[in-house]
Amino acid sequence: PEHRPLYGKHVLVTAGPTHEPIDPVRYLANRSSGKQGFSIAAMAAAAGARVTLVSGPVHLTTPPGVDRIDVESADEMAAAVKKALPADVAIMAAAVADWRTKDRSGQKMKKRGSAPPALLLTENPDILASVASGRKRPKLLIGFAAETENVVDNAQAKRKRKGVDWIIANDVSGDVMGGDTNTIHIVRHSGVETLDELPKMEVARALIDKVVESLENGNED
Ligand code: C5P
């Protein structure tokens, strides 16, 4: 195989959690570490791609050759993704919060004696779905699905619903989030391929190999 098979391609990767502000000092978040997305960005860059990595708040160093854009909330991630397009390939590994607070308090909320405040939530934009239906849809669009049950069936349904090419499904009922290994199912129109449990960097290598293969074959799946 060529040394830099993704040379000349722009690969967009999202990674990490989002933080949804409640007030200036508090937020809603999830357990995503960003490790899988950062590994994918690293492997895409190693394969010669120009890589834009839109990252939520994580404690990771930027892989060599990767152009990193830091964001906090889903709204900010949506804007950064939009700005980063067009791309040949987008791999959306971020664990975007489904909900954000309906109103963000400008001041730190106070304990005022009696009842604790109610958190009113509202739905966040689905970044992946809007990229899928947008004018600048990448030729190969890959989403992730963190599931705890019926992993493959839910992923296949999600693939169709969101209008993406592949869904990378993983079972997060164990300690995948924050852990160093991952077991993934690559869910495509043509079927499902399950990889062994591997370090996240090896999962990324395998996935980027599939991306290269698909681009070379004109990704007819
Ligand atoms: O629907 P669900 O959150 O399981 O979908 C997961 C996939 O969709 C991931 O690729 C994630 O990055 C993306 N997503 C998104 N914007 C959201 C929610 C999920 O881009 N608001």
What are the defining features of this structure?
221 residues; alpha/beta; Rossmann fold; 8-stranded mixed β-sheet; two-stranded antiparallel ribbon; 5 helices; globular; binds cytidine-5'-monophosphate
Quick overview of this protein structure:
This protein is of the alpha/beta class. It has five helices and 14 strands. Residues 11-221 are annotated as: Phosphopantothenate--cysteine ligase.
Characterization of the model:
There is one protein chain. Helix content is 27%, strand content 28%. The strands form 4 sheets. An 8-stranded mixed beta sheet has the order 5-4-1-6-9-10-12-13, sandwiched between helices. Strands 2-3 form a two-stranded antiparallel sheet. The longest helix has 17 residues, at 200-216. The chain has 221 residues and is α/β, with parallel strands linked by helices. The protein has one domain: CoaB-like (Rossmann fold, 3-Layer(aba) Sandwich). It contains 5 helices and 14 strands. It binds cytidine-5'-monophosphate (C5P).
Query: What is the CA–CA distance across the termini?
Result: 21 Å
CATH architecture: 3-Layer(aba) Sandwich
Beta-strand proportion = 25-35%
Total E-strand runs: 14
Number of helices: 5
Shape: globular
CATH class: Alpha Beta
**Strand numbers in spatial order across the main sheet:** 5-4-1-6-9-10-12-13
Q: What name does CATH use for the topology?
A: Rossmann fold
Overall number of structural domains: 1
Category by helix and strand content: alpha/beta
Main beta-sheet annotation: 8 strands, mixed
Parts with pLDDT < 50 across at least 5 consecutive residues: none
| CA-atom Rg in angstroms | 18 Å
Write out the distinct hetero groups bound to the structure.
cytidine-5'-monophosphate
Helix content: 25-40%
- N-to-C series of helices and strands: EEEHEEHEEEHEHEEEEEH
Global mean pLDDT: 94
CATH superfamily: CoaB-like
